[in-house]
Specification:
By secondary structure, this protein is α+β, with helices and mostly antiparallel strands. It contains 15 helices and eight strands. Strands 1-2-3 form a three-stranded antiparallel beta sheet. Strands 6-7-8 form a three-stranded antiparallel beta sheet. It has a two-stranded antiparallel ribbon with strand order 4-5.
């Protein structure tokens, strides 16, 4: 039968495609139900909850210090920042003054953990897009950070290191010197990463102009961190609402403009360089002294409602505590940046080729442990 209409040659049917929850490029147990027409996404529905553990409800039956190990399991590649966010909220509620040395150790470990997390982003993002070598380079350097954390607190992933009033242990002999040597080495590695990836034409073609959104869209969906700053909106809690001792350091907040995958990638790279600057200055300023404040053995938060947020690796990580004056939180709510950041996916995936889906999801850099909590 003769074809009478040119459209008969390219006629397609819509199809539902399940991406995940056991897919290497979903960065955890995350599922997207994607409706496609040919090679174009016409609808995308995120499906979460496969990793839900009820952390907020469990906290109601735990003393404040007993809650700390549970925070390790949220953003499990940035556990130091999770630990700190909880103890910082409790300390603010109690009005505690933290010893200087403890604050410096906290900043060093948090920024080193931020660096380790961004190295995972760098390696796995390039792996998602088909490049193997950057993944190996990134994990070589991350392993050095993890080894230093293991020496400091006896764990490689779930650190349980922060305490209400300070940190669990002082640094071991020679540990700060190890960090200093790593910072010097890492500066050279950053140059290598840029030479290897940042100017690669294939990589640029995959990320420039892909997955873009505006500042208004980002704010409307509660996005924060790099996923907000990539639109040009200058918001970093370490600068805007300084906590700990971040106001003692000279560093910059990297900003994007287009809000696309390229901006999110390059801001991760630039933020690693800023973390190195902060750690370098902290190493120069740290002095001997106590690492724990005088706190009661049984910690009680005064009755009331308290919220405290910090600049986590993926955005604003906050703890909202409702206290009835007892040694356990009456209610605990966690603001998880990865959960907020994923809300924009149905909008930015609509109308894009299927091939760009992995590039867009990877650029948002979610960790499912804090999405599901």
């Amino acid at each position: 039968m003769a074809l009478t209409d040119e459209t008969d040659l390219v006629r397609t049917e819509e199809m539902l495609l399940n991406v995940g929850p056991q897919h290497p490029s979903t960065h955890g147990v995350f599922r997207m139900v994607v409706k496609i027409s040919g090679e174009t996404i016409i609808e995308a529905e995120p499906v979460i909850g496969y990793l839900h553990r009820g952390t907020e409800k469990l906290a109601e039956n735990l003393q404040y210090s007993q809650c700390i190990p549970y925070t390790d399991r949220l953003d499990y590649v940035s556990a130091m920042l999770n630990n700190y966010s909880l103890v910082h909220a409790v300390e603010e509620a109690m009005g505690l003054e933290i010893p200087d040395r403890a604050e410096y150790i906290r900043v060093i470990t948090m920024e080193m953990n931020r660096l380790a997390s961004h190295l995972i982003f760098f390696g796995t993002y390039l792996l998602d897009l088909g490049a193997m070598t950057p993944f190996l380079y990134a994990f070589e350097e991350r392993e050095k950070i993890i080894d230093m954390f293991n020496e400091l607190c006896g764990a490689r992933i779930t650190y349980n290191y922060m305490r209400v009033g300070g940190v669990k242990f002082d640094t071991t002999p020679g540990w700060l010197e190890q960090v200093d040597a790593f910072v010097k080495r890492m500066k050279g590695e950053m140059v290598k990463y840029r030479q290897l990836v940042t100017g690669n034409e294939i990589f640029l073609a995959r990320v420039h102009g892909v997955g873009a959104y505006t500042t208004e869209q980002a704010l409307g969906h509660g996005m924060s961190g790099i996923n907000l700053r990539c639109t040009g909106y200058n918001w970093d809690l370490r600068k805007k609402k300084p906590y700990s001792i971040y106001d003692r350091f000279d560093w910059d907040v990297p900003l994007g403009s287009a809000g696309d995958c390229w901006d999110r990638y390059i801001l991760h790279m630039e933020e690693m360089e800023q973390s190195l600057r902060i750690v370098e200055q902290a190493l120069q300023q740290i002095q001997p002294g106590p690492v724990m404040a005088k706190v009661p053995k049984l910690i009680r938060v005064p009755a009331g409602e308290y919220y405290s947020g910090i600049e986590g690796t993926r955005g604003e990580l906050g703890f909202y505590i409702v206290s009835d004056g007892k040694d356990k939180p009456y209610r605990l709510k966690i603001r998880r940046p990865s959960f907020e950041n994923l809300q924009i996916l149905p909008i930015i995936l609509k109308g894009v080729p299927v091939a760009d889906m992995v590039a867009i999801l990877g650029s948002i850099d979610p960790v499912m442990g804090e999405v599901d909590a």
